[in-house]
Design a protein that fits this description.
This protein is of the alpha+beta class. It has helices at 8-24, 29-32, 43-62, 64-81, 85-91, 96-114, 132-154, 165-173, 175-180, 217-224, 240-248; strands spanning 122-123, 130-131, 191-196, 202-205, 208-216, 236-238. The longest helix is centred in the middle third of the chain and has 23 residues, at 132-154.
Length: 270
């Protein structure tokens, strides 16, 4: 008897969330309000953002009408003010330690239900629809990426695992988007990637041997999520196409964003 497909990314999302929660578990409300290196956001702002979009992703499964209303308000705010912060803050009422517990409770509840979903199920989203696998990968990516400023602020270094491959693949899949969103021509062939996973396994992508990117897989994920400047990683990019990609990589939706400058994102002294 054939077993139904399972959404393994739901477990990776949960592990990512639990890893961040462990770092936050002992913080009080005042500590959660300390600013990070990401646009001056506080740790609390990060949790509001993650909780808002986790709820949105779950609504795309459970209540499409409610999702449309929620995201419609968010997009109107983005068009008017250039920011989603006011809508996120107005929608998420919890703050402090109550917010932290509400966020992790929602993540745990989502993961338990989503892991039995068909990975290919189509879900509505802000732009085109996406698969359940892509939606959950995006939730893991956001948790991992915004987790960076939290760990940096707390003076901690996150222990990585091969679950980061989901984010690496997202970075690979948005090769064209990274160019398009910055109004750059898209090369016909993607540079050859040779990335070393946290386990030591080697992952390869792309075909252009004249343009290559080598180094730690976590560093590649950090560059495509714009949580580290390329110059602050152990990656090596050879060839104009490879260097241009790494200078403009952006695996997330929205307007073009400028990557952090060298030295601006780092682990602070505890």
């Amino acid at each position: 008897m054939t077993q139904p497909p399972t959404l393994s990314q739901a477990d990776d999302f949960l592990t990512e969330s639990e890893t961040l929660y462990t770092a936050l578990a002992d913080l009080d409300a005042d500590s959660l309000r300390q600013p990070t290196q990401f646009k001056g956001w506080t740790i609390e702002d990060v949790l509001v953002h993650l909780h808002f979009w986790n709820i949105g992703a779950d609504m795309s499964v459970t209540d499409e009408a409610a999702f449309t209303r929620m995201i419609g308000g968010a997009m109107a705010s983005l068009n008017e003010t250039g920011s989603l912060r006011s809508v996120e803050n107005a929608t998420i009422s919890e703050r402090g330690t109550t917010l932290r517990e509400a966020w992790i409770s929602k993540a745990r509840d989502m993961a338990a239900r989503w892991r039995t979903m068909d990975p290919k199920q189509r879900l509505i989203w802000v732009g085109p629809s996406m698969s359940a696998r892509s939606s959950m990968t995006a939730r893991q990516m956001e948790t991992w990426a915004h987790g960076f400023e939290v760990f940096d602020t707390l003076g901690k270094t996150r222990t990585e695992s091969d679950r980061v491959k989901n984010i690496v693949v997202l970075g690979v899949n948005t090769f064209g988007w990274s160019h398009q969103v910055h109004s750059l021509p898209v090369p016909e062939t993607m540079p050859l990637l040779t990335l070393t996973a946290p386990s030591g396994e080697v992952w390869t992508f792309g075909e252009d041997t004249d343009n290559t990117i080598t180094g730690p897989a976590t560093d590649f994920a950090a560059v495509v999520t714009q949580t580290r400047a390329f110059a602050d990683t152990a990656l090596t990019a050879t060839g104009e196409a490879a260097q241009t990609w790494m200078a403009n990589a952006q695996c997330f939706a929205g307007p073009p964003e400028t990557p952090p400058t060298s030295g601006s994102r780092h682990v602070q002294e505890a």
